[in-house]
Amino acid sequence: MPRTLWKPHLKPAKSLLDQGLYREALERLEAHPRSKEPEWWRLRGWARWHLGDETGLEDVRHAAELKREGAGWAWQDLGALLFRRGDWVGAAQALERALDHFRAEGDTEGVAWALHGLGVSALHRGEVAEGLSRAEGAWATVRRAALTGFAGRALVLLSCLHRARGELDEALFRAEQALGKQLDEDDRIVALRAKGTALRLAGCPAQALPPLQEAASRAGEGARRAAALAELAPALLLLGRGGEAERAVGEALPHLGAHASARGRALVTLAEISRKRRSWRGALALLGEARLLGPYPLMEEALAFPELFDLAGRHGLELPRVEPSGDKAGVRLFPHGERRLQVGGREVPLEGSGRAFDLMVYLALEGPASWEVAASALWEGESPKVLYRRLKHTASRARDLLADAEAVRLRRGLVSLDPERVWEVVGGKGRFLEGLWTEWALGRRDPNCQAQGTAASLSEIRSQ
Question: Could you count the other beta carbons within 10 Å of the beta carbon of residue 278?
Fold first, then answer.
């Protein structure tokens, strides 16, 4: 749940929820009812929901209707519960209301949460391009406003969306990036699941097992543990441990009535077990049930179980299916006027990325360079130690923008772009790299002008 200033008498129940002790939290809340307090309804709703009781949804809806100030958070919760129920359209509607409240109140953290929720809703509707756009917006908001407490959640969503596009390298990059952040227990569990599932879908189930097992062991009880088991089970199955996989699914399913995506993944695992036992009808029936829950995560499981999806196709059962991405996407850089970055044709927001875009433009135009030369093109008047630190940090930000550890390389004193990508600097109207006043940038704006770096000539060029 998002950060809130909880009243002292509600903090013990909130703490129990954070620990995954949902039954104890519910007992505490019902022992001390506060029917006029929206936050009491909100906490009781979450406790009930995690215990598989869908009446928790109505508790959270009631909290949203009671709230006056800060109503965005209650609508945010309602959206989160609706998409867990599988009502993706209803979730999007609630989250749009949350986003409206947050923007009206200038609540930047709330905006990040709402964009994240809208990204999740789009993902589960199979609208992956929209979901990625929303998630990139959430991550840009986190970067710009330094919302460190929300970073892990935004990165995990990006990891899931890349998986749904078959971009497994990017998915693993984002999951590992999330695990490098300061995370609360719930976010760490989700990040471990994201890393494990990315590795499994990439064909590395043995490497996937440790993070997935750790997620399950940390997950407490109820739906949170069940969701972790639903992601652990297919890894066990791929390693030939079918009995353990079946037991994990058996433990998980009773708690997943209100968790559509995890239930869908568990059904796919059971379908693959049926296929291996040559029970074609059973496998097809389970896949048909999983399809009714929505396109995600069904679509990405085709990467792990292609024979199962082939079986469905031969019997006329059409399923959403993701193929592994091929070559790395090309990058287009628009340095004139408002800076714009496109990766594989999609816009990537630049907020909070410092001069990462400028560094990529420099390297795309000038080619590989020593770190000293590249740094001097972006900053002036700094010591070598400061310049190197800035360049190193900026290269890291460039990798973040592309979700690629190789996007900008800094090795043995040389900085360069990933040669496996096609890099294009696109011309246009407007000043080149507006706001950058180094000698290199000025020379690029007017190739006929041989800027000498003096205060007089710099002032004269700036005034043009």
Answer: 8
Q: What's the rounded Cα separation, in Å, for the pair 96 and 98?
A: 5
Distance, in Å, from the CA atom of 59 to the CA atom of 40, rounded to the nearest integer, reads 9
Half-sphere exposure of residue 414: CA atoms within 13 angstroms, side-chain side: 8
5: its two tokens: 């200033």
Question: 254: cis peptide before it, omega within 30°?
Answer: no
Cα-Cα-Cα-Cα dihedral sign, residues 186, 191, 197, 199: negative
Residues sharing a CB contact under 8 Å with residue 458, sequence separation 6 or more, in sequence order: 437, 442, 451
Taking the C-alpha atoms of residue 11 and residue 60, their distance in angstroms, rounded to an integer, is 18
pLDDT single digits (tens) 387-430: 999 999 999 999 999 999 999 999 999 999 999 999 999 988 88
* pTM of the entire predicted model: 0.85
φ/ψ (deg, to 5) at 407:
-60, -45
Tokens of 62: 């009631």
Helix H or strand E encompassing 410: strand 408-411
What average pLDDT score do residues 68-76 get?
80
